[in-house]
Write a structure and sequence with these properties.
The chain contains twelve helices and twelve strands. It is of the alpha/beta class and about 350 residues long. Helix 1 packs parallel to helix 2 and helix 3 runs parallel beside helix 6.
């Protein structure tokens, strides 16, 4: 049995154990996009508690792609200092630090982007009926360069790599998903075209930052329609990205906040199918609350397991897992609401 507390190498990134804090939006960023004091405290507590890899909340690569008014940004050099401080904090405790970078796409509200309406691949209506504008080719090229510049800034901060956010309905997730991407140009249609933007961003980052600079990707392992087709095409996409230098993929999924009664880890079945077809290091997120969940994933050939909400309720989760104790997290989803209303992050927080 693979030990959850043993080292693992993901491409060009080596971790002291196989437990990862998945990127988690803390809601404590400053209005100008810089990191807030509470965010430094959260990361330091995790690093002090032996988390092998800490992935920080997604930072927007542009001025007009923020998902919320308190989301961090990395579109200007002035934001580098904060991430350099985070890297120093994590490194002081022997961990690895990888910030996540993103563009919110159709989920970029105008209130967070100086009145500029969100963009999606095809300009499809949102759930509330609001219609976004379709990305033009010029805008696609602009955002592509923004991702590459953001990665360069992060590298200059001394981080251990970056993670491209291609999940949870944000911009790159929209391009990947055939449900949302109805384009008829080189960025729409078949799987190769729909993953083209991620591939071009990945290759641009590797060229700018060096082939040994670790680049991870977070991506959904399921969709809302024709999931079998999606998984088969995702396998094709991941093979393309592996050939372009991707170091590891973190597999997440849609609807995770409503999967309380689904066997854990939530997306293990899809991850296992992908593992049989793609020789790429996999990090699995979703539903893990016990060390037995971690061991089940590792036994299936997954290299590492990441968690978000359990680390909110238990920053000392690694030590609890060593004692074979479960996380306190009960999947109540109050961590999406409490920071905005009370300043707390969990119902167990005193």
């Amino acid at each position: 049995m693979t030990n959850a507390f043993s080292p693992v190498t993901l491409g060009h990134l080596t971790l002291k154990n196989r437990l990862v804090r998945s990127a988690t939006h803390e809601y404590f960023g400053e209005a100008d996009g810089s990191l807030g004091d509470r965010q430094f405290e959260i990361i330091e507590e995790l690093a002090r508690n032996e988390v092998g890899l800490i992935i920080s909340a997604h930072a927007c690569v542009t001025k007009w792609g923020r998902s919320s008014p308190e989301q961090n940004r990395i579109n200007e050099d002035r934001f580098v200092e904060g991430f350099a401080r985070l890297a120093e904090i994590v490194h002081a405790h022997g961990g690895k630090f990888v910030p996540q970078i993103s563009h919110a796409g159709g989920k970029a509200p105008s209130m967070a982007n100086e009145g500029r309406i969100g963009r999606s691949p095809s300009g499809l209506p949102l759930k509330d009926g609001t219609r976004t504008s379709a990305f033009t080719l010029d805008e696609i090229n602009e955002v592509k360069e923004d991702f590459i510049r953001a990665a360069l800034r992060m590298k200059s901060a001394g981080v251990d790599g970056i993670q491209i956010h291609g999940a949870h309905g944000y911009m790159l997730s929209e391009f990947v998903n055939f449900v949302e991407n109805k384009r008829t140009d080189d960025y729409g249609g078949n799987a190769e075209n729909r993953v083209r933007l991620i591939r071009e961003i990945l290759e641009g980052i590797k060229e700018a930052c060096g082939k040994e600079f670790p680049v991870l990707l977070k991506i959904n392992s399921n969709t809302t329609e024709d999931n079998e087709r999606y998984v088969e095409e995702l396998i094709e996409m991941l093979r393309i990205l592996q050939d372009s230098g991707l170091d590891a993929v973190e597999l997440s999924g849609t609807g995770f906040s409503n999967l309380k009664d689904v066997p854990t880890p939530f997306f293990l079945e899809a991850a296992t199918k992908i593992r049989r077809s793609v020789d790429l290091p996999i990090i699995l997120v979703g539903g893990t609350r016990r060390i037995e969940d971690v061991e089940r994933a590792l036994e299936a050939g997954i290299e590492a397991v990441s968690m978000s909400r359990p680390f909110i309720s238990d920053p000392d989760l690694v030590a609890k897992f060593k004692r074979r104790e479960a996380a306190r997290c009960i999947h109540c989803n109050k961590c999406f609401i409490l920071p905005k209303t009370t300043g707390k992050r969990c119902i167990f927080e005193k």
